[in-house]
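Figure 6 in text form: structure in, sequence out.
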């Protein structure tokens, strides 16, 4: 009873026979996008590939070296989705992607252990769990978990792992007395036949269809990462089990090394150093804004003081902003010049402003916008917009110069 993968969770290969092969189309994630994929659904005499269930995702692997893209359970059958057909009655060899499977076994068995200890010690029931791609969480029926409780739970979990306790699946009759004493979140609606119990000797028995480690020592270690507020009255407890603890630690260590170099201090001072940098950056930003405003005023005054000034005032300042442009425009005054002001990447995108006598601005503004391949609007006698091609600025200058003869400048 049950699939081969459930009876022999450490086996990675199986030779079996094709029972049926039917054409099908399923929705699969290909390169992060859901797509319809045409292929075949295979039912085999038995399977070493686990179909999804109990919160554990389905396996990956091959059948006669053809990749299996999805495995689901329908009643007592496992449905393997592949892109090439196989003859019913023919013998096939299945192989499991063991790295993925063993990872799932470690996370799933780890969940059983944390669930059992959280219930025994604090009376927190597990209401659901999620085996994530990087980290997993257990939804516990408690509004809060304190830091001390978290540490205790982690300690007890790892103590149990060190005791090398066997973890064994067995089958019992539906309706048997034993079933009343096991932990369960219910059976699937289409369940048929005997019921499977997974027992951690002396700790708990749990109704479950998953593939599990045979001994708690195979979990290596469990790290409780932290607890976050979940759905109403619930808390999500994040954890890593087994090899994930090692790979996560490796990732953290590499990050730490990179931060040591860029922050020029050891890990104990990282947070302090980042705070310091953020504070000084804030001060520097404030200073540069003040200087930019003052510069706008001075530039405008300098222009106005020149007796032989060009009636077209054209300024591009890469580090400027729209406030800088408005200050220049106000300080010069619309009656004193026709202005083309811009900020941003010289040959790329940026902001622009056309200012001067309202009638000229209204006529010339939209034409400047289209020359700079941007868009904008006229407001308070100024035309302000976004440009995508500031490289065409000289053409806009040329256009505005043609308008300067209309100016009746005060001097
Ligand atoms: Zn389970």
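Output sequence:
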């Amino acid at each position: 009873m049950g699939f081969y993968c459930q009876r022999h969770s450490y086996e990675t290969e199986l030779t079996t026979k094709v029972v049926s092969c039917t054409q099908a189309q399923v929705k699969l994630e290909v390169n992060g996008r859901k797509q319809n994929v045409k292929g075949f659904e295979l039912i085999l005499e038995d399977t070493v590939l686990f179909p999804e269930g109990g919160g554990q995702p389905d396996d990956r692997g091959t059948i006669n070296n053809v990749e299996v893209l999805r495995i689901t359970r329908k009643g007592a059958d496992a449905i393997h989705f592949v892109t090439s057909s196989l003859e019913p009655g023919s013998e096939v060899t299945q192989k499991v992607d063991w790295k993925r499977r063993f990872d799932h076994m470690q996370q799933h068995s780890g969940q059983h252990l944390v669930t059992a200890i959280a219930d025994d010690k604090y009376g927190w029931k597990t209401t659901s769990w999620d085996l994530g791609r990087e980290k997993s969480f257990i939804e516990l029926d408690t509004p809060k978990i304190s830091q001390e409780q978290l540490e205790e739970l982690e300690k007890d979990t790892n103590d149990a792992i060190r005791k090398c306790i066997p973890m064994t699946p067995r089958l019992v009759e539906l309706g048997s007395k034993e079933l009343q004493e096991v932990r369960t979140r219910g059976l699937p609606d289409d369940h048929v036949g005997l019921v499977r119990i997974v027992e951690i000797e002396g700790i708990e028995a749990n109704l479950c269809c998953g593939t599990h480690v045979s001994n708690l020592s195979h979990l290596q270690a469990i790290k409780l990462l932290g607890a976050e507020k979940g759905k109403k009255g619930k808390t999500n407890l994040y954890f890593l089990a087994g090899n994930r603890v090692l790979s996560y630690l490796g990732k953290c260590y590499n990050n730490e090394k990179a931060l040591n170099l860029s922050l020029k201090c050891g890990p104990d001072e990282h947070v302090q150093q980042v705070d310091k940098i953020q504070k000084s950056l804030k001060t520097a930003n404030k200073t540069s804004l003040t200087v930019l405003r003052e510069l706008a005023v001075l530039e405008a005054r300098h222009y106005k003081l020149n007796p032989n000034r060009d009636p077209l005032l054209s300024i591009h300042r890469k580090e400027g902003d729209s406030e800088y442009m408005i200050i220049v425009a106000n300080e010069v005054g619309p009656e004193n010049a026709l202005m083309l002001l811009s900020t941003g990447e010289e040959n790329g995108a940026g902001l622009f402003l056309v200012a001067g006598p309202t009638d000229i601005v209204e006529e010339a503004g939209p034409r400047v916008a289209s020359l700079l391949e941007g868009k904008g609007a006229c407001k308070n006698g100024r035309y302000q917009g976004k440009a995508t091609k500031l490289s065409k600025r000289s053409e806009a200058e040329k256009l505005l110069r043609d308008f300067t003869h209309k100016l009746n400048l005060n001097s």
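Caption detail: Residues 54, 108, 112, 206, 208, 210 surround zinc ion (CB under 6 Å).
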